[in-house]
Amino acid sequence: MDGWALPALILVCSYFVGAIPFGVIVTRLAGAADPRSIGSGNIGATNVLRTGRKGLAVLTLLLDGGKGALAVLSAEAISPGSGPLAAVGAFFGHLFPVWLRFRGGKGVATLLGLTLALHWPTGLVAAAAWVLGLVVSRRSSIGGMAAATVTPVASAYFFRDDLTLMFLALALIVLWRHRANIERLIEGTEPRVGDRGQN
Q: What is the pTM of this model?
């Protein structure tokens, strides 16, 4: 393929990879509650945890991250240098999946997965920030926002100027998706991991 055809195909295919709603799929296969019907209604791992099935939450986390990495690595194998384009497609696929009327997750796990695939040192720093924020605060939102915020900073530190602007844009979107969480953090009503509130 020449011109715009291959990039367009990569973008579309990556979107559909990212749009796979693993949180819904794994809970349905396991006979657990649909995450859209509990807590925040979010399809991510934190809300899947509210089904009381920790294993399903971990599986959702890994699969949501894995699809971001898969989209990037597949694109790079087909067309070297197209990883960032695939990352954007997968990220927006997760946030706005066509299968769920464009109501998807907040993008943290998928962002971590695609970051690890694009530049693993930056990905490791982001993952460490996520774990640290989660462990210290016991709030998933803080861990996720910490990971998103650190990603472009780490990318710039490693002189990956080709990725930093994209990471900054994705981080801002993650923060925007967490705006309700930010309001609850300010009010002191943000639940901790394991609570049956919002996320």
A: 0.93
